[in-house]
Design brief:
Blueprint (H helix, E strand, L loop, with lengths): L3 E6 L5 E5 L4 E6 L2 E7 L6 E7 L2 E6 L4 E6 L5 E6 L5 E6 L5 E5 L3 E5 L5 E6 L20
Antiparallel strand pairs: 1-2, 2-3, 3-4, 5-6, 6-7, 7-8, 9-10, 10-11, 11-12
């Protein structure tokens, strides 16, 4: 059984689909869907976002935010989090990111990979899944 958790489109019209249960990121291109990324670095992938020709994704098995270059498939770790399910990524436009964990935590991740917890609602059983960020208002 597959679960589609995130779908993202690049500037060339290719569609990327995360499949957390099968540990695959698929790519739809030229009328066909193909297994694009699979392996030890892709375990429980969820949320995705393309920024500057790189696909950022939450890899919940190892609690890491990773990025992969679209043309070379070179993977690197951006930041490491504690236990939880990485569920949302938004760019602040300056290289920094907002990243959520479904359990109710929201983080700021700097371009250097420093992680700062901005909000923790987990003790109130309030969850943060995907979220939106409005840059003009600096509002979540």
């Amino acid at each position: 059984m597959s679960y589609i958790l995130s779908i993202w489109l690049d500037d060339k019209g290719r569609v990327y689909v995360s499949d957390s249960r099968n540990n695959i990121i698929w790519r739809y291109e030229d009328g066909r869907i193909k297994e694009w990324l699979k392996g030890k670095d892709i375990e429980d992938p969820n949320t995705m976002r393309i920024i500057n020709n790189e696909l950022y994704f939450g890899n919940s098995a190892d609690q890491c935010l990773k990025k992969v270059k679209l043309e070379t498939k070179e993977i690197s770790i951006i930041a490491e989090f504690g236990p939880g399910f990485i569920d949302g990524i938004r760019s602040l436009g300056d290289g920094n990111l907002l990243v959520s964990q479904w359990q109710g935590r929201l983080y700021l991740v700097t371009t250097e990979g420093k992680v700062t917890k901005l909000l923790d609602l987990s003790n109130q059983n309030i969850y943060i899944a995907d979220f939106e960020y409005i840059p003009a208002k600096k509002m979540i």
